[in-house]
Amino acid sequence: MRVVVEADGGSRGNPGPAGYGAVVLDPATGAVLAERAESLGVATNNVAEYSGLIAGLRAAGELGARQVDVRMDSKLVVEQMSGRWQIKNEGLRPLAREASALARGFDKVTYQWIPRAQNGRADALANKAMDGTPVSTNAASEAHASETPVPGGWVPRVEAPTRLILVRHGETALTTEKKYSGRGDVPLTERGQAQARAAAGRVGLIADDVAAIVCSPLTRTRQTAAAIADRYARRVTVEPDLIECDFGIWEGLTFAEVSDRWPAELTAWLGSTMLAPPEGESFDEVALRVRAVVTRLREKYAGKTVVVVSHVSPIKVVLREALDGGPGFLHRMNLDPAGVSLIDSWPDGGVSVRLVNDTSHLARI
């Protein structure tokens, strides 16, 4: 299947209130297959344009496209994605990497510059997003909305689900100091080790047996996973992509310290999951790699239970997707050390979130 993606983005102030728009078209008939648009908070024109490209590629993938012809009026994005221009802006590199990763999922992707006058549909969507106007996300399916069940919607189930028990690691020294703790390899405190044992007991109440226990490569998750593995006499498998978000040069600093030294960068980061801390990783990049792990686990252990021991950001992006939450979800959900969450899923896309950040097992610690 071949589609055309027209994408655009804009910012009123550069940086300023920003938004993107993308439309997926049937190349033969010009029919609109899907639309995407979203406000980005405060961002630059280039960030908004890359965001539109990413949204368009993602929508094309969801439609099952194998070939994509991208058309944009951003000379910079087209030339950089075509490999003819270098990406000198550090803030755009994570977005370009994400777009490239999505592009590799297709058989072929081409990039073409078009005049702004020929990109009116995407431009209009971007402006609606900046205005806060709701935008349809799937034009092709709206006509059948009354007849088609909502994908992943709740229906009575008789078959066994694939169950993911999500466990955040126990307390570390950086946890108690409320500092950004990403790739730094800090161990559990004595209290954190007690929390890990308590979490193992809570998991034991949920599942008599588990098919696998997987964790991030960092020490704090390995220690937490080991406590759970002892209960089931199972080995722990390390999944590198379950590692915490890379907070770059903010690692080991408090929110107040970051706010004082990088106020503009922090505001932009809080306003868009597509932006990364300086020298770090965006939440969208985290979601991309964690989603791949979850997909593999659900395929490999269909109908069974898997314990996933990870960090705040990876667990949040899994819960956000399960709950169909928006970008603001990541900053509104709290996950405590050794908190336990639970998600059931079925092959037809059905999802049921049964537990979020349960800490009842920590009451006596």
From TrEMBL:
This is Putative phosphoglycerate mutase. InterPro entries: His_Pase_superF_clade-1, His_PPase_superfam, PGM_Phosphatase, RNaseH-like_sf, RNaseH/PGlycerate_mutase, RNaseH_domain, RNaseH_sf. It comes from the Bacteria. Residues 1-131 form the RNase H type-1 domain. It is an enzyme of class 5 (isomerase). The keyword Protease does not apply. Residues 135-154 are annotated as: Disordered. It comes from Longispora fulva. Keywords: Isomerase. Its EC number is 5.4.2.12. Substrate binds at residue 220.
